Each structure stands twice: as structure tokens, then as C-alpha cells.
Give the backbone structure.
Amino acid sequence: MVPTLSFDRLRSIVIGSVTHLPDARTGRNWQYAIADAALAAFAVFYVQAPSFRAYRRDRQRAKGRINAERLFGLEQAPSDPQIRNLLDPIAPSHLGPPFWTIFGQLRLGGYLKPYQGALSPWLVTLDGTQYFSSTQIHCEQCTECELSDGRHYAHTVVTPLLVAPGQSEVLALEPEFIMPQDGQEKQDCELRAAERWLKRNAQHFAPGSVTILGDDLYCHQPFCNLVTRLHLHFAFTCKPESHPALYEEVALLTKLGAVTEVTERCWTPHGMEVWHYRYVNRVPLRSETPVTYVNWCEVTITAAASGAQRYHNAWATDHTLSESRLRPFVTASRTRWKNENEGNNVLKHYGYHLEHNFGHGKHHLALILVLLNLLAFLFHTALELCDELYRCVRRELVTRQTFFHDIQALTRYLVFDSWPALLTFMARGLELDVGVG
């Protein structure tokens, strides 16, 4: 039997992970546990506090301290500098497992059925995003570059997400950081980071069960070959300027009448649209040998009334294309944008403050804090999927900002025995009929 997912069950997964984080201390100052440092940082991101200082002020009050203990399992919270010092030596690999544990629990509990689609059971998007840049502050994990105005330091992370057409919630998977690699002289990059992620994490999915989505950067022959070698599928944006050999072949086949064209009219929330497809199977991804052959699909969407173009894109894929599969393929492939819209955009601009410098450190702190932030993002998505009370309160308050401002205010002035008690209080105040008793 798989336990029903709840806040307490999810919290136990997080606590179980941070309890086993390595401790680099060698002196006598063992007053605070590493787990408490990690949970204190996680709590900041979970309640979407704008800074450690803002959350600490609330936590230092009696009610804030009690809520931190009861809601997050904190025993004794270190100060902000102590949190940073304790977490700085910890390598990011130690915080990868809880992402997969939560994913596994959601899958086994049947909560991810809405994410299973026609193209393949799962769609996973890959995209890199920069979350820190400075000309002064840096650490040993920074990516460095020399520009006209001097040396720049940055942190970038590849954020894989489980997505599905029609699903507004995206599920954060373990990220992969772009950072210097041991024994490698070349500067790390998004594509190499994505390769590491695939090699390490393909084991979490059954063969053939995942289609990897990405932009034109990922439509690179060695990367495509790696995806298929790991028994996954791909659908990557394919631009003419970066794939001249493929488009020369498509142009030739078009003249020969070997490129199939299909047009359909369909009603959408934007009105009547005309979807015009062009597709062909087995074209070369590049001219150099050895050649990998891919299947190619292009779609142009126009407004039926005015003829104005609303969308145009093309993809290379290993999925065999046919007329009956065109619409499911295009619909699935377009969900790549959820990585930017429902993923990185939310993390940066809607409460999680991904680009805020919560602390940089000398070793891994900037990475560990992003991991805890992404874990909080995953935590809230999981609750949206498995907790009806959470879902009702969240939707009644409409915006993320209102929801989290209410949580911050309530935990500042009142004490709650548990997270369900807090949600129940909110539901009663909002007069929601969701069986709160």
C-alpha cells in the first residue's frame, strides 16, 4: 500500500533527506544540527519570504518559533550566518533524492494520471536559466567569462520539469547545475549539464516512457543519440539556420512531392483556427557522417477569419509521424514553453525569488539554496495534486501573492498545531464548504 500523500508525508521525505546531510564541522561548535539549518532555509522558500532576514524576524517571535517547530519540524533554528556556514560545504548531489522520492510517491499514488499523454506516458522539458550574475561576488562553482567591462561570474541551472498539455502545474525534477567539472578543462555548458542529468536519471523512467522536449540547442546529433541510447524519445525545436542539411533535404523532397501536407480547421479558445502541417519521416539531422536520421514536422497556425499567423514552429523527433499523430505530437511538443512560463517565470517573478541572492558562500551554498527553493516549489505542486483542502484554499485566493501573504500573516500572529490546522482555519474564514468540520 502506498501511503496517502499529505503535508506530513511530504515533510517526512524532506526531513529524512536533510537528516542524512554530511557534516563538515571538525571543531567543538555542534550546537545546531545540519538538518535544522536545511529545514530553516526550506521554510523560507516554502512560505515565500522575500529574504532570510524577513523570515528570521517572524521566527524570533514566540508564535513564529512555535509555528516553525510545528509546521516544519525545526528543533533549534540557527542564525542566518550559521545556516549559510553549515550548508556551504554540502555538495548538491545530496539533495537530489527527495525530488525522485516525491515523484515516485505521486506516481504510485495515482496523482500523476493527468500527466500521461498520447505521445508518450511522460513529457519532460529541459531548459537552462541563469539565477545569479555579478562582477564581484563569486565562488568556486561559478561560471566565469571575460567581457569588455571585465570578468563576470554567473550561476545557471538546467531545470527539468514534468509537464502535460492542459495541466497548469509543472512538476520540478532534480535539477542539474552548470558548473566546473572535476578533471575537465572546458567550460561547462547547458548541453553538457543536460547530458549528465540524462545519464544519471534515465533509470527513473521505464524504457520508452518519456519524451524529452527542448529548444534548438538540444537538437544536436550527439545529444539526440544519447537520448535514444538511454531508451527515451525526443522532440526538439529544429531551426533552418542551425540545420541546413536537414532543410535542404526537406526542400528537395518538397519538390518531389514527398513531404506530406495536411490542413485542418479547429475551434480553440481563441476562435476558429487553421492548422497547416508539413511532415516527412527519415531526413538527415546533419551532413557529416555518421548521420542520424530524424522525423520532421512543421506547423503553421492562422486565424480562420483574418488569415493572421498565430504560431509557427518545427521539430525534429524520433517518433514516427503520421497524419493521425500530427495534432497530438504538436500539442505535446508545444508544452516545452511550460518550462519558461509555468516554471522559471514563476520561480523568478511570482514569490520564489529565484534570482535573489539569499547567500553565495565559497563552495556550494548558492546551489544548495536553489535546490531547497526548487524543492519548496515541488512541495506546493504536490499539495496542489494530492490535497483537496490546499487546492480549494489556493484557488479561492486566486493569486499566489495573496495565498502566501495570508500564510505569512497568520503564522506571525497565531499558533497552529499543524499545516492542516492552518488550512482549515483559512477555509473556515473563507467560508469554503470542503468538509473542514
